[in-house]
Amino acid sequence: MKRDGAERAFARAASGQREEFGDFFLSRLLGFGIAYPDGACTVAFEAEPFMFNPQGTLHGGILSTALDVSMGHLLRHVTGTAGTTLEFKVQFLGAVRSGGVVCTGRMLRQGRSICFLRAEATDSAGDVVAFATSTWKLLVPRA
Q: Residue 46: which CATH number?
């Protein structure tokens, strides 16, 4: 019996036991591939039908999650410290109906405790379909 995309995604997500940067339930569920090229963080995934809204396009929440992950993982990669989002804004420029999506996060300004980041999402044709800006507070490890 052939398994549909949602069944494969849930099986992939449930197969992991770790909840850490680069390997956590949502990244496995959505098939995120995370990399760190040239001072950026990319989150790449295939837009699957189970990710679509009733209009037949990639749900904005999925795209927002990928944008957020690209910035949060970059913050951790650059600073060595996890952070928490203080502010997050997304602007959608186009719809994704199929194919691959790549979200690229970049640091705009890094302070001692507050950082500003930006990310953009491109579709398989290379067109920007959304971008986000965010403000993060670095988390001080508890003793």
A: 3.10.129.10
